[in-house]
Automatic annotation (TrEMBL):
Organism: Gryllotalpicola daejeonensis
Keyword DNA repair belongs to the record: no
Domain of life: Bacteria
Gene field: pknB_1
This protein's name: non-specific serine/threonine protein kinase
Reaction catalysis annotation: L-threonyl-[protein] + ATP = O-phospho-L-threonyl-[protein] + ADP + H(+); L-seryl-[protein] + ATP = O-phospho-L-seryl-[protein] + ADP + H(+)
Organism ancestry: Bacteria, Bacillati, Actinomycetota, Actinomycetes, Micrococcales
Keywords of this entry: ATP-binding, Kinase, Membrane, Nucleotide-binding, Serine/threonine-protein kinase, Transferase, Transmembrane, Transmembrane helix
A GO molecular function held by the record: kinase activity
Length: 670
């Protein structure tokens, strides 16, 4: 089994005595992002660590710290939160909010292009976060789909302010262009100058890419793309995707105008226009049977003519007045098909003046009444949409609030809270996990906002894992919606097959759950996996024993050298430990090696009688062979002491193993 810590030394490391690194999420040009656990606050965080080869570069380190300061100044639901910044030895790091999910780039890679409605929904959140940055005087300067995070719970956040800089600093880029070439504004390419309008240009390119599935400018070399940004206008998205509404076409062209003066001043201006586009796209079409009213003012000193187009099938009603009104004034009113002539037919001047007076008074009252009605409607409409039920209010940020505090925050802006209990891995019990619609969205007063209130971790049951192969164990844990610890411990065990689970424990309290039992979803299970039995190398030659240990990733060390009557010289007498443990890959096994059998000195028994010689040799641990006769005669006929040992085989004072047989040769006492 491969140990992942060999490929990345930070995995499993405790940073600054607080952040336990669990796994790697992504690697970028300046830093690597890891998933870590904040042991102090018991929550998962994203740990961004600057590459070690950049640690000595003052400019990079300053830019890295600037990201923490820039983002920490922004408290907005659509901006990734920065919790901490520090340095551990020579390693600079940021601690950020962890958002499990994908990036906008991943979404585009999977789906190619998005619908106008999906594009508007995502860009409303992105622009809301960017507007907060612009309001704080911060220019992002690296806007691209990779830096838009789409969380699993529906939240959309803008991250990676590594190139951000205060807008008041004139934001020159210096020797080299910073940011991704596909999203650089013309002024950045030609003059190296960036402000809030440069961010707007990048947003326009992103909208184009979301609607069409490709970037507007492409080339084999970065300089080719940069040249097109500086010299060409971004085409309408509808040329690539006919389903794009003209309002979105116009929005993209406005945001990507090559002249920064012609673009929206900042993200807030573009966001307000995006709201208008959204309302225009979803607005009902006017009734096809009615024609619009057209007012025509012909040239002339005293002449005015107003034409009101009648509905289909209607005729015009004409009244003509002469004298006292200047040049002739003709007014056409919508009317029935039958033409009605004016009753002003008096033949004398008095009758005409009276008729004109009556008409003028009647028309004056009618105009006054119409103005009063219009004023009333305008006032009522203004109140309804300004302060009444039709007013629009933004959904407040409810992150990390308790359910009671979230309800109060919604009531303060005259919105209604609806609680929806949910289980959550990240959010503490009783706190808001998510709001629908998302914070920042504009709603009419009195609208309902659903808040998902965390019930904590969902109760769960872990099946028995002891003796289960590691791959199956992972599947069982994942199926139970729990997590497998990133550091899987490996031990040698003679009773459990290789690559099977020896034991399983809870990461929170090390409680043993090898045999299964009660648990909670989203918690972590730590596994100990068998590497098989430790090889038995007793009796093997030393070189062969060493090779057998190396084959299973065990080291060997010199134990004791001992004499052994049963093990040949140079072979292993014993190994420590043998099969008890725990023993892990990379541990050392001590080997005791045989010096061969122990040898003893053979006593000199020449000149002794056979009986004395035998006793002496047997006392020294040897066996003895004494002839029964001498010169063919039985020994018993010789006087005691006459016959003695003249020779012993093996020779006297030679080194022999205990139990060796010594043969005696007899002769006459001389």
């Amino acid at each position: 089994m491969t140990n992942t810590s060999q490929t990345d030394p930070l995995l499993g490391r405790l940073i600054d005595g607080r952040y336990q690194v669990r796994s790697r999420i992504a690697r970028g040009g300046m830093a690597t992002v890891y998933l870590a656990t904040d042991l102090r606050l018991e929550r998962r965080v994203a740990l961004k660590v600057m590459h070690s080869h950049l640690a000595d570069d003052t400019n990079f380190k300053t830019r890295f710290v600037q990201e923490a300061r820039s983002t920490a100044r922004l408290a907005h639901p659509n901006v990734v939160n920065v919790f901490d910044q520090g340095q551990d030895d020579d390693m600079a790091y940021l601690v950020m909010e962890y958002l499990p999910g994908i990036t906008l780039r991943d979404l585009l890679r999977d789906y190619g292009k998005l619908t106008p409605e999906q594009t508007i929904d995502i860009m409303e959140s992105v622009l809301a976060g960017l507007a907060a940055a612009h309001r704080a005087g911060i220019v992002h300067r690296d806007l691209k789909p990779e830096n838009v995070l789409l969380a699993d719970d529906g939240r959309i956040k803008l991250g990676d302010f590594g190139l951000a800089r205060a807008a008041a600093n004139a934001t020159g880029t210096g020797q080299a262009l910073l940011g991704t070439i596909a999203y650089l504004s013309p002024e950045l390419v030609t003059r190296g100058i960036a402000d809030t309008r440069s961010d707007i240009y990048a947003i326009g390119i992103m909208i184009y890419e979301m609607l069409t599935g490709e970037q507007p400018f492409q080339g084999e070399q970065p300089m080719q793309i940069a040249y097109q940004h500086a010299n060409d206008s971004v085409p309408r998205p509808s040329l690539k995707n006919p389903l794009v509404p003209p309002q979105l076409d116009d929005l993209v062209l406005w945001a990507t105008d090559r002249d920064p003066e012609q673009r929206p001043a900042d993200a807030r201006a573009l966001l307000e226009k995006l709201y208008e586009v959204e309302r225009a796209i979803h607005a009902p079409h006017p009734d096809a049977g009615l024609d619009a009213t057209r007012v025509i003012s012909p040239t002339g000193n005293d002449a005015q003519a107003t034409t009101v187009l009648a509905p289909a099938g209607a005729a015009a009603l004409t009244s003509s007045y002469g004298g006292g009104f200047g040049a002739g004034a003709t007014t056409q009113f919508a009317g029935p098909a039958a033409q009605v002539r004016s009753e002003a037919t008096a033949t004398d001047a008095v009758s005409k003046l009276a008729s004109v007076s009556r008409h003028r008074r009647g028309r004056g009252w009618w105009l006054f009444a119409a103005l009063m009605v219009i004023a009333g409607l305008a006032s009522g409409t203004g109140w309804y949409f300004g302060a009444g039920p039709g007013a629009l209010v933004a959904v407040p940020s409810l992150d990390e609030k308790t359910a009671q505090a979230a309800t109060a925050a919604l009531q303060n802006v005259e919105l209604v809270a609806k609680s929806n209990p949910v289980y959550s891995c990240e959010v503490p019990e009783g706190h808001v996990a998510r709001a629908h619609p998302a914070p920042g969205r504009l709603l009419h007063k009195g609208s309902t906002v659903t808040i998902d209130v965390s019930r904590g971790h969902q109760p769960n049951t872990i099946p028995p894992l002891g003796g289960v192969p590691i791959d199956q164990a992972r599947q069982k844990i994942t199926a139970a919606k729990s997590l497998v610890g990133t550091q899987v411990d490996t031990q040698f065990n003679a009773k459990v097959p290789k690559d099977a689970v020896i034991s399983a424990t809870k990461a929170t309290d090390n409680g043993d759950i090898t045999g299964g039992g009660a648990f909670t979803q989203c918690d972590t299970v730590n596994l100990v996996v068998s590497a098989g039995a430790i090889p038995n190398v007793v009796g093997k030659p030393l070189a062969e024993a060493q090779a057998a240990l190396q084959d299973v990733d065990l080291k060997y060390g010199a134990g004791q050298a001992k004499y052994d009557d049963n093990v040949p010289k140079g072979s292993v007498i014993a190994q420590t430990p043998a099969d008890s443990g725990p023993v892990h890959p990379g541990d050392t096994i001590l080997l005791d090696v045989s010096n061969g059998p122990h040898l003893y000195d053979v006593p000199d028994v020449t000149s002794m009688t056979p009986a004395d010689a035998k006793a002496t040799l047997e006392e020294a641990g040897f066996t003895v062979t004494v002839p029964d006769t001498f010169s063919g005669l039985p020994l018993g006929i010789f006087q005691d002491g006459t016959i003695v040992v003249s020779k012993e085989t093996p020779d006297a004072h030679s080194k022999q193993r205990k139990g060796t047989n010594i043969s005696l040769t007899l002769g006459l006492k001389g």
